[in-house]
Amino acid sequence: MSCSLDLRQKVISYVGSGHSCVCAARIFWIGKSTLHRWILRKRENGNINPLPHGGGFPSKINAVDFKQYVADNPDKTLQEMGKFFGISPKRD
Q1: d(Cα 84, Cα 23) in Å, to the nearest integer?
Q2: How far is it between the farthest Cα atoms of the chain?
Q3: Stated pTM of the model
Q4: In terms of domains, do 38 and 63 share one?
Q5: Does 31 map to a domain?
Q6: How far is residue 83's CA from residue 4's CA, in Å, rounded to a whole number?
Q7: Which residues of 61-77 are buried (b: 16+ CB within 10 A; e: fewer)?
Q8: Whole-angstrom Cα distance, residue 79 to residue 86?
Q9: How many domains does the chain have?
Q10: I want to staple 8 with a disulfide (CB 3.0 to 4.6 A). Which of 48, 62, 86, 91 is the partner?
Q11: How high is the pLDDT of residue 45?
């Protein structure tokens, strides 16, 4: 999960005001290498926005259909919703 732009800006500003990267990483609970990537990206293109999601598995159901179903059926259990959409939890 990516960090918010607000957090990124606060951390970059903190380091820019003279604090060390190690100190900033501890205070803001982020990895030093993450902070170094943000600083490098800021230097290279002036942008620290999160990059787009790199992949993963596509959703098995349409988000709009799911939201509408939940709005219309707020008392359904997850099992009932899964049955309606033809999906079930992964079992190992």
Answers
A1: 51
A2: 56
A3: 0.57
A4: no
A5: yes
A6: 35
A7: eeeeeeeebeeeeeeee
A8: 10
A9: 2
A10: 48
A11: 92
Residue 26 is assigned to a structural domain of this protein:
yes
pLDDT at 40 over 80: yes
**Same-domain check for residues 12 and 41:** yes
- In a domain, residue 53? The reply is no
pLDDT tens-digit map of 49-71:
988 877 788 888 898 999 999 99
39 lies in the same domain as 71: no
Kindly provide the b/e burial profile for residues 27-45, where b requires at least 16 CB atoms within 10 angstroms of the residue's own CB. Answer: ebebeeeebeebbebbeee
DSSP-assigned states of every residue in 14-71 = HHHTT--HHHHHHHHT--HHHHHHHHHHHHHHS--PPPPP---PPPSS-HHHHHHHHH
| C-beta neighbour count of 14 within 10 angstroms | 17
50 in a structural domain: no
Query: Residue 91 has what pLDDT?
Result: 66
69, 41: one domain: no
Contact 61, 85 (CB under 8 A): yes
